[in-house]
Please model this.
Amino acid sequence: MQTETLDAAPFVHPSRMMLDSLLYAATLAPSPDNNQPWLFESRPDGELHLLHDRTRALPSDVGDMFSMIALGAALENLCLAAGNLGWRALVRYPADENGHEVVAAIRFVEGGEADPLADFLEVRCCNRKPYPRRPISDESRSQMQASIASQETARLHWLSDRPSIRKLAGIVADADRIRFEHRPFHTELFHQLRFTPREAESTRDGLDVRCLELPLGAASILRWLRHWPLVKHLNRLGLSRLMSFSSAMQVWRTGTMGLLTTTDTSRLGYLQAGRAMQRVWLTASKLGLAFHPLGSVPIFLSHLARGTANDLPSCYRLRVENLADRFEKLFPQATGQGLVVLFRLGEASGGARSLREPARWQQIVGDR
Ligand SMILES: Cc1cc2nc3c(=O)[nH]c(=O)nc-3n(C[C@H](O)[C@H](O)[C@H](O)COP(=O)(O)O)c2cc1C
Model:
């Protein structure tokens, strides 16, 4: 992983064509609900800035954790694409400047080498299909581990025995159930869903229902569920349980579950963790393995760790505390670390990458 400080090497000024290809690669990164929380600035001295576009952050995010993970993934893609151009990316992490949310400043020097993971930037996608229950091989796990060997703060943990996967399926379902029952989460979900190809094409962000692997007819039913009073009523009749059952089934129909954690829970720590997540995901793609992140458990447990779960109604807060206890029993080695992403992993084909907006960037003239 290239996380180098600036040195005295002569910097390359990317041409417009090169810049386009770097930004295109960055925007192929995954983001929660496909919110694409990035912006770019090209500076007169050839430095490229990656910024957090707070207007696109998810309301349920905590301490910018989700945004930083996505931005870290975009940064990793950018560095990999630079290697393909024969450049090395030198990255510094400035503190917020002038209220501008610059999360990384990147300069390029000659002498970079192509990383084989760069070949999988366009192949990587989120695969929500059922996977075989056969665990992935030890060799595959080792390769994923090796892909983040230089990342000191990232840790990978695995679960592949059936009793533990069964317990984890229950935990994920209970976390998702809260998402279906608490109005702000319902609002957030329906803000991100795109129900028709036309809608998906017009925004080129959010969750296209065609990528969600819903059973036949489920998308039409889901559309009706945008009306909160209806959902509130149906939840009393068991709707949220029914909806979260499919989350449990997804985990149940998986051979290996992975957990990425970080020992550094600062914003920078999560940015670095996003780089690590992307390398693990790209390595999975290289190995022909399907990958599916599950964000509910990490986000709820992070709210709990930061004390912001207190903002939840007490019935949900108690449920989150219960989730935390059960989760810690499954992953005792991760205790005290920041959760980054829980993911399904398996030998499954299919999956399709969601649409992306063209990179939002501006050329800065003068010294702003
Ligand atoms: C931090 C993070 C959390 C995510 N959580 C979920 C999740 O809970 N459920 C899910 O189906 N996909 C989840 N995803 C996958 C995104 O929805 C997906 O990356 C995005 O829609 C773009 O699609 P693509 O990865 O196929 O390009 C998550 C991705 C990230 C980066």
Observations:
- The domain at 11-122+357-363 is CATH 3.40.109.10 (NADH Oxidase).
- The mean pLDDT is 94.
- The CA atoms of residues 265 and 338 lie 6 Å apart.
